[in-house]
Every structure is written in structure tokens, then in C-alpha cells.
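This follows on from our talk about sequence and fold. Go ahead and set the record down below:
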Amino acid sequence: MAVTIRIPALLRALVGDKSEVSVESGAVGEVLARLVSEYPDVKDRLYDEDGNLRRFVNVYVNGEDIRALDGEATQLKDGDEVAIVPAIAGGI
């Protein structure tokens, strides 16, 4: 079983300029661990020193924020789409 991880433009240089990566399914945390295992340079961009997802990194499963689901324990099934979306701050 595989899921697709959508890679934001800011991280594409770290994954061979790919806009998406396919990995074996599991829980969100496992899928992200597989991504980091294959592309180790991504780890510092996604996780803090304690191994937690950074506050400004938003993760969505099929368009739904994992914070509204089971977080990194959210189970995925074949064909699901995981999107990594860095928060953007700005002002006037």
C-alpha cells in the first residue's frame, strides 16, 4: 500500500526537486519517518530538537488537518494524500 506525500516548493530541493513522493502507508508519523529516512535533509525542516513536528509545519490528510484527526497517529490507507504545508506569516 502507498500514500502520496505532497512536497511544498520550499522543501523540493531536499527531495530531488520532486513535488510528490510515494511511500508505504501506515500512520502519519510512520509515513513522515519514511520520508525522512529516504531524504534525511528534510528532518530539520519538519522536526524540532525534541523530535516533535515544528509548530509552523501543517500536515493534512486528504485536505483535513491532522490536528483535527488523531495527529501523527492518524492511520492512512492506500491512495491517501498527505500534504505538508508550511505556515506563512505576514502582515501589512
User: Anything to note?
Assistant: The helical segments are 28-38, 43-46. Residues 2-86 form a domain with the Ubiquitin-like (UB roll) fold (CATH 3.10.20.30). The chain has one domain: 2-86.
